[in-house]
Amino acid sequence: MMLTRRSLLVSSLAPALVRAEPRLLEVNKIWDEAQHNAFTDLVRFRGRWFCAFREGKGHASPDGQMRILTSRDAKKWTPAAIVRSDRGDLRDAKLCVTPQNELMLSGAAALIPSTPHRHQSMAWFSKDGAQWSEPAAIGDPDFWLWRVTWHGNTAYSTGYSTQVNRNLRTFRLYRSEDGRKFQTLVENLGIPNSPGESTIRFTNSGEAICLVRRDPYNGQPPIPSTAATAMLGRAQAPYTRWEWKDTGTRVGGPNFIRLSNGRHVAAVRLHDGKVRTSLCWLDIERAKLEEFLPLPSSGDSSYAGLVAEGDTLHISYYSTHEQKTSIYLAKVRF
Fold it and tell me: Does a structural domain hold residue 35?
């Protein structure tokens, strides 16, 4: 059969027209020294990688402390610092870089029983990842500010109330000009059925996007599992009016990031059958999550940190698929 010049041209272009599937390049365990190592985050700061997570005797033990590891190449990791508090169990370490080019570490302390409150969110600051400031109490007592995100010179975070009856949770939006003092921007975002962990990101146009976990709860009245699916919210500045949609997918530890091609990738714990940590496409317009790459994981797992560099996404997370609850770093090529 004779090929025309046009068919030859189309044939030569065909490979470029096929979208390459994301590829898992490698997964490495980077820490397992404590009895329980969990709840990670990841950031690139001044030419180095930093990974923060909680160490303790168990998933919810009173001895929780935050450990920070550092690396130049994201392969060989060394301890940089340990952050402790005599106020209680430190949980859910999160990292970000402030407009003043400082590392900001945030989390919440599950307070010792003798105190009048159950939880207090806190933040610490560092210029090198090794020496950290004294903690600043951020937000209101008994409100868990799960992740802080900077947009320009302003920090934003949602906070959920930690009262015993989760059916009555209040879900607030906070803002701060310095990362040390947070003011309530929206008293209650109005999400029903036990909203909790969440991540806010901002588009190039300034629109805020928020992915929120919800939990089933056997209180009075009980919440059915069908109402424990994640919610996706959108708002324009000044971020006081939000539109919420149900994704239809139950998740834990929600985090997401925008890639250079404009698509959003979420790292979440999925609960449909086998519990696992997985990467999903996040369709903002349709408010849908579509799994495309499960990571080696099972059981007590998830709480990922995400950093994209070029066409490679770096993911920190924890898992028990090798029996001991340990910290892992995965690299995915897009």
Answer: no
What residues contact residue 307 under an 8 Å CB cut-off, 6+ apart?
42, 43, 44, 49, 257, 313, 314
Left if phi > 0, otherwise alpha if psi is -120 to 50, otherwise beta: which for 152? left
Write down the pLDDT at residue 73: 97
Residue type, 42: L
Mean predicted lDDT score pLDDT of the chain: 91
The model's pLDDT over 253-306, given as tens digits with 9 standing for 90+, comes to 999 999 998 999 999 999 888 899 999 999 999 999 999 999 999 999 999 999
Contact assessment for residue 217 and residue 194, using Cβ atoms and an 8 Å cutoff: yes
CATH of residue 321's domain is 2.120.10.10
Instruction: Single out the residue of 98, 193, 167 nearest to residue 138, CA to CA.
Output: 98
In a domain, 87, yes or no: no
Nearest-CA neighbor of 178 among 255, 267, 102? 102
- The helix/strand/coil state of 14 is helix
HSE toward the beta carbon, residue 12, CA cutoff 13 A: 7
Q: Is residue 54 part of a domain?
A: no
Give residue 192's pLDDT.
Answer: 85
pTM: 0.91
**Please, which residues bridge with residue 5 across strands?**
none
Q: In the Cβ-directed half-sphere of 86, how many Cα atoms lie within 13 Å?
A: 1
- Run means of pLDDT, 10 residues per run, the chain, 334 residues: 35 43 96 98 98 96 96 98 96 98 98 91 98 98 97 98 76 97 97 93 97 77 69 98 97 96 96 93 98 97 97 97 97 96
**Count of the separate structural domains present in the chain:** 1
Query: Residue 141: which domain range?
Result: 19-28+111-120+130-333
